[in-house]
Amino acid sequence: MSKDMLEKGAIVQRDKETFAIAPHIPGGIIDPAGLRKIADVAEKYNAKALKITSAQRIAIVGIDPQDIDGAWADLGMSPGAAIGLCVRSVKICPGTTFCKRGQQDSVGVGLKLDEIYHGMQLPWKFKMGVSGCVNSCAEPAIKDVGLIGTPKGWRLLVGGCGAGKPRIGQMLAENLSDEEALSLIERVVNYYKDHAKKQRLGEFIEEIGFDKFKQEVLP
Question: Considering the entire predicted model, what is its pTM?
Fold first, then answer.
């Protein structure tokens, strides 16, 4: 039986014979040339489908294992961290860059978070979401770390997930500037990395208690 190939960013499919690969597309923002390259690679290697993922990537589905290296070489793009114990994704909404409802710069802050954390090894899988307003299009309340933009700054939620035991993130702080939000997220990630076992952030917070976690990470 075939298995995922973590080192090649390839995920075995239901048929146990073919694989999906998903180039990293920070924030889901890509230019027309990048889209054409993905389409060309999918066509060249007879992919069975192109799938828009929940992590704002485009998965090339149904690649034969002998074609994986060639597909990555033709793409010239790095893999998205779709598997492994790491920061899997930073999902962002259009924010003040594009959206008329945006109240904070989710694109700017989200891309900074992606640059810093995407693929970072952690005790368990970890997801981030950045929404420029309370409509929460990037689903920050069900991410390990989530930011929600308000007229007064960022609201930071921690411990959410949408897995088998869903959790809504708890508010750690609000009215944060961009710099304050980035700094506090760094403290959260470092504390989790240094103290948690093989568990999602929400499980870790539940184990030690939210009050203790808050006391430890707030400056």
Answer: 0.96
